[in-house]
Amino acid sequence: MKGRYLVGVVIFFTLSSSFSFAQEATHLGEVVVTATRTPQGLQSAPGQVFVVTGEKLEHSPGQTVDSALGTLPGVFNRRANLMDTLQAVTLGGIPGQNRSLVVLDGVPINNAYTGDVNLVSLPLGDVERIEVAQGPFSSLYGGNAMGGVVSIFSKRPEKRSFTFSTGYGSSWHRGEALDDWQRHYFSYGDKWQEKAHVFFSYGFKATNGYPKDLNVQSARPPVGITGYIPTTDYQGNPRYIIGDKGDNTWWDDSLRLKFSYDFSKTTKIDVVYNRLRYRYNYDEPHTYLRNASGQLIYSYSSVREASFASGSGYKETGLYSLALETQIGEAKAKMSLGLNDEGENWYTLPNTSAPYATLTGKNGKLSSTPNQNYLFDLQVTYPLFKRHLVTVGGAVTSGKADTEEYSLLFYKDEDSKQALTYNAGGKTRNLALFAQDEIRLFSPLTLWLGVRYDYWETFDGYANQFGTGALADVYPRRSDSAISPKGALVYKPFRETIFKASLGQAFRPPTIYELYRTWVGTGTPQVTYKGNPDLKPEKTTSWDVAVAQGLWSGARVELRYFVNHLTDLIYRKTGPVVGNTRTDEYINAGKAKSEGVSGEIEQRLGKIWRLFANFTYTDARIKENVAKPQTVGKRLTQIPERMGNAGLEMEWGPIYASVIARYVGKRYATDDNSDEVNGVSGSYDPYLTVDARLKYRFLKYFSLCATVTNINGEDYFYSYKAPGRAWFLELEMRF
User: Fold this and answer.
1) pTM of the full structure
2) Is the model's pLDDT at 559 over the cut of 70?
3) Were both Cys, which of 314, 383, 390, 486 would link to 504 (CB 3.0–4.6 Å)?
4) Given 3-state DSSP classes, what are the helix, strand and coil percentages for the chain, each rounded to the nearest 5?
């Protein structure tokens, strides 16, 4: 869809909506802080902002933070099941978790190494609310906020409460989804002497998984071997499924301690510790092959046992935060200290080259990357001249990551380390100053003007590979800077009509992985995959317009048009083969444009029924790529062109019920969009799934809940085999 047509739709909608007969306001009482760093009514906040309450989260069929957010317009949740470690929540048509910031209790939880986050281990019972602000927010939050900001606020109890829940579920047909899925949660909250608030919780999830990773080979097994399944790869080339790598098992848990103290009505402190852990593994693989004698086999002339093997992984994250708020006269100040510590972050892999892995667990490697992010943030807000509310502040962030790789005697035992084969790492630091002015031009019109200056530097970078393909590099200190301005308007000409527009710039500094992760591969030609310590930050210039309109009683509709112009995109360039070697290096190679439209309509029927539907259309394409010119005009990877959700919710006395359908269109994993074939391993298929949830409260303190996911049994690939139909039953006690 061309931009002029989308603008026309918005203008038409704005003009026509002025004549609607609204009778009932929605969300008038909700207050958000993410969009401006100061409290704002949801309808008055600039940009498109959504609020998901803790109650709504607990009603989510997916029962994880990211799956609940995936039902919002403009939000893409890149994860199909609990066991996917490549989880990401991306906003506003800009790909990559490292381009959308996630904040928990004021502390960014994008890690220092790759910019990824761990949301799957965070229990929904800990969350008071989530605010999702779409659009560039580097003027307030710095790097990683190109697509927007997801702010998660944990509970701050106002009275004594206990919650205990336990549940069990499995796939409808065993082996097609998460088998033996169990979830348990306990929390205690209290308020002591009207001053102190305490909250403690522990959550645990586990599953025996299902065989999602297929063993696919390019050559047909020899004559006399049977049981294989003909298929293709995502480009249509013949392939053969010879088995799978076993059930992908998983467990995760979360421990949270929060202490808050109100020194006065205007001064308070929050101290939070959160430990998040997960571990995945694979049980015994399954072969589909039999020889002429009918015996199961795992290898033949061109295939080794190692092709059936898979490793394991573990991550432990400690999140520490301290937030102090106070007021002196009319000035309000807030200081935050935080640490995101991935103290353990490792995975194992079986060797696919000599010495080859075996099904008994021999021969593999361990890759470990502990990393830390430190934060200091200070802001002061002060009203000036009756029409101005000025916010000024500064921030310091510091990150470090160190990778070590070892050979393993047994890839199923991370403690069987042998020789150190590789290490690399580095540090980054960012110093920032920001200012924002909220200007009440006149009663229905408010203007926001903001700017942030960031000075970014990287230092202590190194990369060493030992043995074959040895390298030893030490990289010099380097710095860069960015200015990120933003302006926004909110216009409320009528009680039920809100018009919003914003224009801004944002940036993302390169991650430690992109800067320093260099290693030499095996094979022919021998490829050196290089980080690049000279990378510049990526940038985007973005603008959007949006309108929200109340219609008849209980009805509302929203529409947004957005445009992002991305420059200096970081891209890995494939080098020429010289002799028997090749060097692939990250460079600032690209330009891209992402534009689209999203909309939502909601109808509430009294206090019992709610119907909603939303859609997002995104045209995201590469405009320039000196590293690979043939990709110009192709779609950006991992951005669906079309997404949509529709649902019906009912809450009547002790009963809650919902049915929600979610559609995600085709997306590409290859930059040349050559992965066009669907329904095969490695493809990212379009899909439509339907989930249902029924909850009944009884005996005052108890609730029984039943959930069925993928009711329609959608059969699709998410690179791996996506989960089929599954059920889950849960008993909750709350008092």
Assistant:
1) 0.90
2) yes
3) 486
4) 5, 60, 35
